[in-house]
Amino acid sequence: MLKLEGIHVYYQESLAVSDVSISVKEGEFVTIIGANGAGKTTIMKAIMGLIRVKKGKIHFEGDDLTNKPPWVRAEMGIGYIPEGRRVFPDLSVVENLKVGAYTIKNKQILNQNLEKVFFLFPRLKEREKQLARSMSGGEQQMLAIGRAMMLNPKLLLIDEISMGLMPILVNTAFASIKKMHEEGVTILLVEQNAKKALATADRGYVLETGRIVLEDRADILNQKDEIKKAYLGG
Amino acid sequence: MLLQQIINGIVVGSVYSLTAMGATLVYSILRILDIANAGAYALGAYVGLFSYVATDNLLLSFLIGMIAMGIWGIFVQKFLYLPLLGKSPLISLITSIGLFIFLGDFIRLWAGPQIKDFPADLKLPFSGIKTENLTIMSVWILVLLTTAILLLTLWYLITKTKIGLAWRATAQDLEIAKAMGINVNVVVAFNFFLGYSFAAAAGIMIGIMYNFISPTMGDVPAYKMLAIIVLGGLGNPVGAVVAAMLIGLIETLVGGYIGFFLPRDSIAFIAVIIILLIKPQGLFVRKNI
Ligand SMILES: Nc1ncnc2c1ncn2[C@@H]1O[C@H](COP(=O)(O)OP(=O)(O)OP(=O)(O)O)[C@@H](O)[C@H]1O
Ligand SMILES: [Mg+2]
């Protein structure tokens, strides 16, 4: 479904992601783990089209994405939960959700998706009219997840779902993306919380300073000594 | 007397608010100061005047002037500001000052350096009001009505429509707006179209009110517009309208009661300096649309 073929991404002169190849099959749950600054966010932005790929190609369902603007990629069915939530601070909860469904023209589908999000996160329904900036971090994370669900994405890109959340909320967040996966959404998740990510995903890649150094089934990666040492706290 | 001054002030403030609205909208979405917006004010007045002379239809000449400047705004953002996006805002600022100076000279070359008269007889469908101690000229009513219609349209677009939602999202987080499926190129183009057409409307109204236009007519509004948008809390449309009304009122009240001990335009700037000394962040907080 998604294929990155040897992509290189630069910030000005400095190489942030080097020769990265990743593939995600339809229905899979794939994770990329890596330390701070490894290049995880950069890869997500490259897939979404928010940063230019200098070399290499990105394919989605057979189409070459390389020169397509981000909004076309969204319309093709790629959803995005960005790092640090990035909800629109001065839009209300329901407006944030509507922006998530911006490419959906059919009112009926839009309302169905809205119902679905409100069913999964009743807290968002209670706060429908509230401005996003006045919500707690955990509520904003729910909103970011809900906003991505509004698109009914085929592929969902998730950048650090656990960041800044207390453990119980991390579990809720993981439970909600697991649920989406069970409903048929293909997922690519990047995480520093390698333990959680590997426990949830089918397959994983390990990213070190902009390069993929390992790739395997998640349960196998979970058992590897070097992974345990570097990412799972011994 | 007081009522008369207040009405005068509101009329002047209306024109100021349209003048400042274009730059406010641009700032809200791209975070750059667009001085060249005042160029659309002068150029729009010329297009409006020539259209009026050609068609003898005021409504039509407003529309032609506004649409022509709106399209010009789309060009400006596409070929000037978008390529500079992501660079230092100083570069955009200097570019826009350059464009503004160019436009003044362009008008001089095209239409001549002399002042041009705006036809005095406009055949408005309504007449003014004149009582013993109150005069409301018919062009003032025209100014108030036009301003009210344009500002209400803008408010409706921003708060009630789908493009308005896209607009607010883009102003708040351009990158994420893109990723959510919003074609931000269209949003930014639309923003400039409206901003520049508002400036054109303001220019035409000033031409009508004072019965003349000139190549340098945008100079003072360029600076005054800056003062207003800073006072109104950079990129805050409601703040800009209130600040514009305030400046309009201060100008006329000081002029009316204390007299013009200084040139009229300097009063606005003195007021801004005083207000900013007391409240350095402007009258309003910076707020997203
Ligand atoms: N806007 C930028 N300009 C310059 N360098 C950048 C920029 N953004 C990221 N980088 C650099 O690119 C590299 C990869 O950054 P990236 O944000 O992709 O890492 P990450 O794996 O997401 O890290 P984290 O776990 O902290 O989120 C880092 O060395 C970072 O310093
Ligand atoms: Mg990151």
UniProtKB/TrEMBL annotation, chain A:
Keywords annotated in UniProt: Amino-acid transport, ATP-binding, Nucleotide-binding, Transport
Keyword Transport recorded: yes
GO terms, biological process: L-amino acid transport
Pfam family, one: ABC_tran
Bilayer-spanning residue ranges: none
Gene3D superfamilies documented for this protein: P-loop containing nucleotide triphosphate hydrolases (3.40.50.300)
CDD domains: ABC_TM1139_LivF_branched (cd03224)
Single GO molecular function: branched-chain amino acid transmembrane transporter activity
Domain ABC transporter: 2-234
PANTHER family, A to Z: HIGH-AFFINITY BRANCHED-CHAIN AMINO ACID TRANSPORT ATP-BINDING PROTEIN LIVF
Family classification: Belongs to the ABC transporter superfamily.
Name of the protein in question: Branched-chain amino acid ABC transporter ATP-binding protein
Source organism of this protein record: Candidatus Infernicultor aquiphilus
From TrEMBL, chain B:
GO biological process: D-alanine transmembrane transport; L-alanine transport; L-isoleucine import across plasma membrane
MF (Gene Ontology): L-isoleucine transmembrane transporter activity; L-leucine transmembrane transporter activity; L-phenylalanine transmembrane transporter activity; L-valine transmembrane transporter activity
InterPro entries: ABC_transp_permease, BCAA_transport_permease
Superkingdom of source: Bacteria
Annotated membrane topology: Multi-pass membrane protein
Keyword set, alphabetical order: Amino-acid transport, Cell inner membrane, Cell membrane, Membrane, Transmembrane, Transmembrane helix, Transport
Record has Metal-binding as a keyword: no
Segments crossing the lipid bilayer: 7-29, 35-55, 62-84, 90-111, 132-158, 193-213, 225-250, 256-278
Compartments (UniProt record): Cell membrane
Any matching Pfam family: BPD_transp_2
GO cellular component, one term: plasma membrane
Family recorded in the similarity comment: Belongs to the binding-protein-dependent transport system permease family. LivHM subfamily.
Name of this protein: Branched-chain amino acid ABC transporter permease
